[in-house]
Amino acid sequence: MDFKLPDIGEGVHEGEIVKWLIKTGDTLAEDQPMVEVMTDKATVEIPSPVAGTVAELLASEGQTIEVGKVIIRISENGKQAAKKPAEKTEAKTALATIPAKSIERIVEPVAPAEEPIPYHILSTPATRKLARDLGVDLKTIKGTGLQGRVTKMDVQLAHEGHQAATPRSSHNVVAVMPSVSPQRSSVAIGARGALQVVPLKGIRKKIAESMAYSKHTAAHFTYVEEVDMSAVVKLRASAQEEAQKRGVKLTYLPFIIKALIPALMEFPYLNSSLDDEKQEIVLKGDYNIGVATDTPNGLMVPVIKAADRKSIWEVATEIQLLSEKARTGKISLEDLKGGTFTVTNAGSIGGVLATPVINHPEVAILGVNAIRKRPVVKNDQIVIGDVMFLSLSVDHRVVDGADAARFMNRLIYFLSEPSRLVFA
User: Fold this and answer.
1) In the Cβ-directed half-sphere of 154, how many Cα atoms lie within 13 Å?
2) In the structure, what pLDDT confidence band is assigned to residue 149 with cuts at 50, 70 and 90?
3) CA quadruple 68, 69, 71, 72: dihedral positive or negative?
4) Neighbour count for residue 124 (Cβ, 10 Å)
5) In what order do the strands lie in the sheet with 33-38?
6) pTM to 2 decimal places
7) What digits encode the pLDDT tens for the residues 302-321?
8) Rounded to whole angstroms, how far apart are CA atoms 272 and 291?
9) How many CA atoms lie within 13 Å of 24's alpha carbon, on the beta-carbon side?
10) Which has the higher per-residue pLDDT, 16 or 228?
11) Alpha carbon distances (Å) from 119 to 36, 108, 139, 143, 149
12) Active-site residue among 159, 162, 220, 396?
């Protein structure tokens, strides 16, 4: 069979062949990983839809291929297919002709002895193995994948004890970090006076393209204000014991995200996107907050879906889970899509001020900077406070400076006294 590069994400029209995991002449098992492909969303690992032998590789590493182009030719195992009843063979062939469906397949009617899973539970072998490893009963999980399939994320969330309440459309790929891209922190430096050339490819290339497109398209405008975070600092400190009991790393970010929600509700244009082609401003009814995450191979933005319907603990847990997945190369395309507003937290590293670049097609991004002890005036008295600068970059085509200032004032209203969120 000729295997074509599948449609592996919204708006993805092409992908770069990062690494072949097999070679001509190799024997392939069904669902065996074949190739790593880089898209403008993430790097994904694509498995084989059938068992057989690699007849020919039709794309080389580093080559950019359009969706729908044949990338590998597989000689199928005819003998194995002949042993199955005709209706099963036909079903298998039908699945094989739809590459995008080949990753999350319908489970065979009879499960292996070590996997006593009822036939009506749809999941991949890798998902079932993950469930066994984590001790999760698949029968207790409501699948959020296509046709109700149970995905790896469903299993992971069930294991963490906070399976998402709202279904998510599942992609048919598993993301991995590009193995050919060296980690930035481990690049060897040449001798004095020598020049070293590092190819602009993989995630770094996609970051460069996205940032340049955003700067050349959106009319960036940055508004900066300071906020006394003393009340949040005190509240977080008082919750650390409970955080340890829950096994959650409680940072300042969940408090900031929760404070963003009522501010975004009052100023909906900051939670929108601009469709340049149709010349339409699209106001979003969802509050999906992207969290810019530093990884060994570059910046990624996992998205906290429906942040308005999650508690502080749920937001903190999801940040921890998604950040770890991003840093270890286990992030999925579904985790990276659907954002309506982004937060970038350079303050955990340092710095008091930044002018962040908007995460296109969104129209606003909030830069969270370092919290530092500074003198502040309270009740006409100078006291020491925990002060942080917030940097809000907006697309001036959609958001006026006055609205950006009013939005920031509202955000500061909730951050300066987080108890106000109870009544928001």
Assistant:
1) 29
2) low
3) positive
4) 21
5) 64-66, 14-20, 33-38, 43-47, 174-175
6) 0.63
7) 999 999 999 999 999 999 99
8) 17
9) 8
10) 228
11) 30, 7, 11, 14, 12
12) 396
Amino acid at 289: I
Report the alpha-carbon distance of residue 91 to residue 285 in Å, rounded.
40
- The pLDDT value recorded for residue 108 is 35
In angstroms, the CA 325 to CA 300 distance is 11
* Cα 210 to Cα 213: distance, rounded to the nearest angstrom: 5
**Does residue 220 have an active-site annotation?**
no
- Label each residue of the chain as H, E or C: CEEECCCCCCCCCEEEEEEECCCCCCEECCCCEEEEEECCCCEEEEECCCCEEEEEECCCCCCEEECCCEEEEEEECHHHHHCCCHHHHHHHHHHHCCHHHCCCCCCCCCCCCCCCCCCCCCCCHHHHHHHHHHCCCHHHCCCCCHHHCCCHHHHHHHHHCCCCCCCCCCCCCEECCCCCCCCHHHCCCCCCCCCCCCCCCHHHHHHHHHHHHHHHHCCEEEEEEEEECHHHHHHHHHCHHHHHHHCCCCCCHHHHHHHHHHHHHHCHHHHEEEECCCCEEEECCCCCEEEEEEECCEEECCEECCHHHCCHHHHHHHHHHHHHHHHHCCCCHHHHCCCCEEEEEHHHCCCCCCCCCCCCCECEEEEEEEEEEEEEEECCEEEEEEEEEEEEEEECCCCCHHHHHHHHHHHHHHHHCHHHHHHC
Structure tokens given for 313: 């603990």
- The answer to whether 48 touches 74, Cβ cutoff 8 Å, is yes
CA dist 142 → 155, 168, 339 (Å): 10, 11, 24
